[in-house]
Amino acid sequence: MTAAPDTAAPDAIDPDVERWASLRRRDPAADGRFVYAVRSTGVYCRPSCAARSPRPENVVFYTSNAEAEQAGFRPCKRCRPDGPSQSVRRAEAVAAACRLIEEAEEVPHLEELAAAAGMSPHHFHRIFKQVTGVTPRAYVQAHRAARVVDVLQQAGSVTEAIYEAGYGSSGRFYESAGGRLGMTPTSYRKGGVGETIRFAVGVCSLGSILVAATERGVCAILLGDDPDMLLRDLQERFSRAELIGGDADFEATVAQVVGFVEAPGMGLGLPLDIGGTAFQQRVWQALRAIPAGRTASYAEIADAIGEPAAVRAVARACGANPLAVAIPCHRVVRSDGGLSGYRWGVERKRDLLDRERREAVQ
Q1: Helix or strand or coil: residue 159?
Q2: Minimal CA–CA distance to 277: which of 233, 307, 245, 297?
Q3: Which residues are annotated as catalytic?
């Protein structure tokens, strides 16, 4: 506990200098690290509190709420330092909206979702996209398509599956079916029957690499030591599709993917055919937002998609990723920064992270 530093002495070796700077910036990243109390008002606040900045001589810093309350200060009613942070409250509201969408028999309107979250429709739309990376409408579309994927395996017909998933008409689903399933619904339901998938196996510094693509884009990038194992993996994924070896043009695609593996900073200018459930797509989109040379924890990804309790589900979504490097699940680490499991081997994960860090400092 110390008083706020004198702003005339910014070079002082004092941790409160940094705290005062965070307070002046209203830095949300400092929330949870400390609180500040104001003698003149008798309240304590988060560093990000939107209240008017206090005079330095009236400020006292504490490392916890308990310390501030023991000193006789009460929590601010504006920033609620004794409750969840604003980012957590927003994430919880968005997670609740996602559950409403997923559990409702009929898709809720934006106004209904906003009302349930206690926000205006415009504000809710902005917060939802900020937290999940997609608009509420895009999330609804992804969830519906994922339900079709599940129901296609059991339903008596494709039409039945489409209506069970909540589509008002089959036309609306077919408009986007290819992008969601990577093929027509009938082909998907029959294990890829009638679909042609080109593939080729090459070699990169990480070992063998298999690249496969539908008409819509690259649908698999698999890494390993045994080319036959990679091909069996592809065959199991599309057990009834026609798999054909790539021609000379496709070899150029493989070369481009290999170049991307060797130098991730160059980017991958190829279309991707990404399937997955609505939840997996949210996770994979969050992974693609992690810059090369940086990492994020499973918990941070869970927070980013508005599902802070879904850390294990995030880990499973990372393990289900079929597009190595293009969807960079290797950039996800444990909360302590340690490397955890990786579908294609922890050594490959370490190698990828090392080369991205080297590129980032060049």
Answers
A1: helix
A2: 307
A3: 45, 329
